[in-house]
Amino acid sequence: MPRAGLSPARVVEVAAEIADEAGFEALSLAAVAERCGVRLPSLYKHVRSLDAVRLEVSALAIRELGAATTAAVLGHSRRDAVLAMAVAWRAYARTHPGRYAATVAAPTGEHQGQADAAAAFLVVVEATLAGYGLRGDDAIDAARAVRSTLHGFVDLENRGGFGLPVDVDRSFERLVLALEGQLQAWATTDG
Fold first, then answer.
1. CA 58 – CA 147 distance, rounded (Å)
2. DSSP structure string for 34-101
């Protein structure tokens, strides 16, 4: 019989907490079982495997990142929307580094919730880029550029990659403004 108060959703919540504390790659079912106060074999009453838990954490993280960026961009367009999205993206990655790491790999189709969350997040990014007239393949190219730029910065920041004595917030703002300027130019060039 499953332990009272323990559910698949609670297991995922605990796994996400552990990922934030120890890193997504360090996530283990043994750590989840210990934190939940059950023996490892008992955890299998709630989850199939570590891979299944990782996919659930990924889906959760993508939904959370999508919700954070959606809330940030509402009511904004173009430059203000890009800045708001970037700030929310960075804040989520800094607050939830393990969960954020779970958002990096593209969904493979193994988990419908992960695929749905990724599709919903892409809608937010594409809506932000639509203010620049970017649609279709141009919007996908721009979405990849935005994601690569923001991810590169937050990943380096989360890993302690910025050691120079210059304000990191200033560097981030300048990077996002440069990206936004490129989006303006991108919208006026023929691909």
1. 16
2. HHHTS-HHHHTTT-S-HHHHHHHHHHHHHHHHHHHHHHHHTT--HHHHHHHHHHHHHHHHHH-HHHHH
CATH number of domain containing 66: 1.10.357.10
pLDDT per position as a tens digit, 15-50: 999 999 999 999 999 999 999 999 999 999 999 999
What 3-state class would DSSP assign to 28? coil
Structure-token pair, residue 91? 């804040």
On whether the CB atoms of residues 99 and 64 are closer than 8 A, the answer is: yes
Number of domains in the chain: 1
CA angle 24/27/31 to nearest 5° reads 150
Specify the pTM. 0.92
